[in-house]
């Protein structure tokens, strides 16, 4: 039996991984930003109360998770068959993650 002569391997793309990475950075930053906004603004705080016993935390986490999932879905559809600049995407995601961690510390959050 002869081996196949046309064994072209499919091109590997990194769009799906990049979509997951960037959406995670966006979701984590959204969580930190919404937490600060809920603490600082009475109007935003009242809009973030989805479940009264937990207060605005229910809206902060639910909104951040929804934003993460919607962002992931949109980027996945757009990038799934593409190769994107993964270094640049990783840098942006890392910056968003670092900012979200920094915003979690009260001395920094109190600046807003």
Distance N to C terminus: 72 Å
How would you state the average pLDDT, rounded? 91
Question: Which regions are unreliable across 5 or more consecutive residues at pLDDT < 50?
Answer: none
Radius of gyration from the alpha-carbon trace, in angstroms: 20 Å
* Amount of helix: 55-70%
* Helix-strand makeup class: mainly alpha
Order of helices and strands: HHHHH
C-alpha geometry: elongated
Determine the number of helices (DSSP H or I, runs of at least 4 residues): 5
Can you describe what's shown?
With 112 residues, the chain is an all-alpha fold. It has one domain. Helix content is 70%, strand content 0%. It contains five helices and no strands. It has helices at residues 15-40, 42-47, 56-79, 86-103, 106-109. Helix 1 runs antiparallel to helix 3 and helix 1 runs parallel beside helix 4 (86-103). The model has no long low-confidence stretch (mean pLDDT 91).
